[in-house]
Fold:
Amino acid sequence: MSATTAALRPRLVKRLLPSRATRLAVRIGAVAAAFVAAALFLLLAGNPIGPVFSALWSGSFGSAYGQAQTILAAIPLVFTSLAVAIAFRMLLWNIGAEGQFYFGAFGAAAVAYAWPEWPGPLLLTAMVLGGMLGGALWALVPGALRAYLGVNEIVPTLLLNYVAILWVDYLVNTAWRDPESLGFPLGVPFSAQATLPQLGDTAVHAGAIIAVIAALVIAVILRKTIWGYKIKVIGENRRAARYAGFSITRNIVGVMLLSGALAGVGGMVEVSGTVHRIQADISPGFGYTGIIVATLARFSPLLILPVALLFGALITGGVELQTIGLPSDIVLMLQGTILFFALAGELLVHYRIEWRRQAQTGSEGEPGAAGRAHPGAMPSGT
Amino acid sequence: MSTHDPGPAEGAVELRGIVKRFPGIVANDNVDFSVARGEVHALLGENGAGKTTLMSILSGAYRPDAGTVSVGGRTMSFRSPKQAIEAGIGMVHQHFRLVQPLSVAENVLLGAPSTFRLAGNATEDRVAELAEAYGIRVNPSAKIWQLSVGEQQRVEILKALFREASVLILDEPTAVLTPQEATHLFSIMRRIASEDRAVIFISHKLDEVMAVADRVTVLRAGRGVATLTIGESDKANLARLMVGREVMFRVARSDHDAGAPRLTVKGLIATGDLGLPALRDVTLEVRAGEILGVAGVAGNGQRELTEVIAGLRPAISGTVAIGGRDLSASTPAERISAGLGYVPEDRLGTGLIPSLGCIDNVMLKRTDEFARGFFINKQAAEAATSELVDRFDVKTSSLHSPVSLMSGGNIQKLLLARELSAGPGALVVAQPTAGLDVGATEAIRRLLLEQRDAGVAVLLVSEDLDELLSLCDRIAVMYEGKVMGVVGAAGADREQIGLMMAGTASDPA
Amino acid sequence: MKSSLKLISLGVALMLAAACGTGSESAGEDSGSTGGGGSKDVVKAAWVYVGPRNDGGWTTAHDNGRLAVEKTLGDKVETAYVENVPEEPAAATRAIEGFARKGYDIIFTTSFGFMDPTLEVAKKYPDVVFEHCSGFKTADNMSAYFGAMEEAKFLAGMAAGAATKNGQLGVVNAFPIPEVIRLGNAFMLGAQAVNPDATMKVVFTNSWYDPPKEKSAAESLLDANSDVLTQDVDSPATGQVAGAAGAKWVGYNSDASEFAPDAWLTAPVWDWSDYYIERVEAVLDGSWESHNYYGTLADGIVGLAPYGKSVSQETQDMIDAKRQEIVNDEFDVFQGPVYDQSGRVMAKKGEALSLDQLLSMDWFVKGIEGKLPAS
Structure:
């Protein structure tokens, strides 16, 4: 046994069952810490704190305009992160929500162009189905490869993203090109019936309702249905699932189809609610951001709603910051800081930091311990 | 057997006034415990009595809420298992802490003083040497995941020996060993003790305690009840101290004739995880209303046999049939609905999902029953679970809290309760009482006999020969994937079965 | 994106603009002076950029214009910008509207993809005026503006034609859209005016600004034996590749000679300074009117960057002479005879390509080696 120092060292210790109160407190603390750190960054970079935070607030939650923009920015993220979350419940990494989003947009647009004169409710319903079908189809290939051939889903889902994006690119360059776009790759504008209505006189379109419904449906599937139960079991323990007689292959394919369908509805909502036509550049990476949102929400469909809103707020607040003259680099750093603390908060929900003395051997001579110490145990130091 | 009368001067380990509370329970309530060098000291108690908690405090995994720990006369305050290991405390846990993809030798070296570098064959030679010295049969280059539970435990023992622990704690070490292996382990324990080291032996098996220990400390409900030398104790008084009441050692077994063959396997050939032959032409027949035991040393194909029957492992050839219906090509689900119940050896990894609660675990095999359309009928599942928990006397704080928080006996009761609640025609049970306390073991055995009496065909795989002898109608003995013979349990000769377990064939009964 | 029009008074765009309810010149009295009406003491002007301000190309050219506005107008103007705005419609709308609701008086949006979002925001904020670059839609409070880059491309092509040793040029293009095709064709025709046998290979990156893709596209052109590279994308990556390989380079958008001084020949460049100063001043004195502007070499909107060391005086003189012809309206870049890749006559001798042909150009001129996806 060597002589030891009394240096305090941090250690991560797993919390066994974090209570609801702990989880809430840690998360709120993380957000608070994020803003303190962000403020420090701003000071160091020589920027005024007050105006920046007030712009961030008014651009995201603090004004009717900001709220609408935040919701609009959050809508596509809800769908892609639901897609990631449901797949991850079975320990599948769907990196392909981006491509499924594009293919869903393609499916919805195909419906919109085929029957532009159908009455709105019917056409929009058909477009949702088209979007689901498109997205599901795009997830089927990696799902089947994983289920039947054991091919890891990460690479196929990722690669198919590029194929889907190029496919939409091809269509808007050829068959679906708007003759009035002067040769530029833009699809023909949707008919009015194919456009999602606004909610009242706000800037928010009905996709917000579809997003909330989707999250609720997924939550119900996971919590209340037999299928959800099987997904949970397979995700927790594949051996036990096989033992219980659940078909792993069928459930992998099923979950991937659902995952793709969710991302596909996201594509439908985006083209029908925001873009009003199919075109290239309908997603600046919603499928990838969805992975972060889903992870932060701990793959819980209901938590995804607030987390997606947080992301929406960061996006819209970030634009607001640039319009008051903050360089985009500082904005990115600010967004990164807030995300970092949010992720760290998630870690601390499940682990706590303990400060321990390094390898203290021999007697500690603590009064409390000495009172109960065995008389023969002599304090000895080495 | 030598007995010592150790005074404080000889004390290897001295625990005084240990108190450890967990939310809702006091696991150790002012426990004193001392072990001398050169002795094998049994720590006896039912599951939940606080044995493992007490030893976790000694091995640095927990810190006591009150009380002192001293090792070799010095007061210690371990803040981590690492510090305890440095102080010479070695613990072999019930749940193994081995790195599955690494080899035996690599596992033994993990965490050992860093002067030993991982250097391929040299380390394997060292480990092989050490194993040889203590007569432990294990291949140093095999990967952990390829080993049976019994073999994995031997690696754990080797690990502690390799670190030259001066105090070796063994937590229920015989649970997965054959009688011969257990006997062998005892001689290892005695050898370690004879090297002026202390061996602490956690157990609830009275025969073993009587056979190997010098002294015994009995815990009940978190309190130290007594410390006795073996000379002044006998099985009956230890059992009484442990359980707090008189205990019946024999399970009553009615005589009745078995019915028609219910579960039959013919010519099964299958490979193990390694890809090596695990079953070489196994043919067995379990009749309705009988318990057919499968005896054998761990790793002779028993686990593979149960997995092939359950449909979890493909057979290369051969058939599995229940009630005359050929299920060889059926999925696990189809076998379940054909009336096959299965209690796997790996309770908390296959049979139950540790992170889920009782209700979700009961639903595992009864999803169809608790379905209302697409939805789960939560009320029905909860009611059924609560009824099962009551009927089978499963003790749990909540039907929703993870089953991993329950004791081993209650885990097994829940698992068995679920399998029996489906009303199986045939039941495959593997190591049903391994690691369970006397009370739980008694309850499980009674349940198995009830099933037999109710006309279920029970295939019972166990490494506890006493258990097989007391429960079974007939016993099949497996060796290297073959059935060496089937003998009637009544009047069976232990020696003969032991020989068959070691590979000597006998006439089929 | 940056699709352009020629001769606005005759253009389709005007009809579209009229359909949108835009007043033409005659509407000066009633709808011309928007922007809050009347003169102002200080104008708040904002720019929405598709790329980073320092991309060394398209966006840098616009930002130089913004800086010129600041320098010239001093206290009378307050400028701001947002960079890296995606062409995804929701994001673009968000950025444009962010300025509009902050009380900015004039907002310049500098990518084709911002056209519909600009129009949408313009409808919601009638007191703010908008200037969209490279599109065709206008409104009472929204102008369109662009320039005859094909004229500068032709001149730059002449420099390339004079510099090539093996007569094989290469171009890194963004999208297969009429604007890009037209500019590539102009460049090819300019090169052939000096070196009639010159040919040019084409690679598309499908992005305006993607330096790694541009780099590998340039490398593949060098592999195919091109010894002079040019580009219709926004970063100087092509020049860096050419410089490293000892090839020559004609840049685009702004003077980027510093990135590869040895390879540098010249670049057809944008100079938005005068236009931006004029438009902001118009808001200042209350004379702003919606229009569809198409600047030319004569206007100074397009031009050539300073020549590199290797461009001989003789070549410079020849290019200057051609520039004078264009400015004097004595020469049209797409003056016949023009042949397509298959040798078909697209414009006869003595004629020029029509506006329609220019707007929807989806074919390469003879000498260009490459295929268009849509054809």
Observations:
- Confidence is low (pLDDT under 50) at residues 1-5, 358-382 of chain A.
- Chain A touches chain C through 32 residues (CB under 8 Å).
- Residues 43 and 49 of chain A are 7 Å apart (CA to CA).
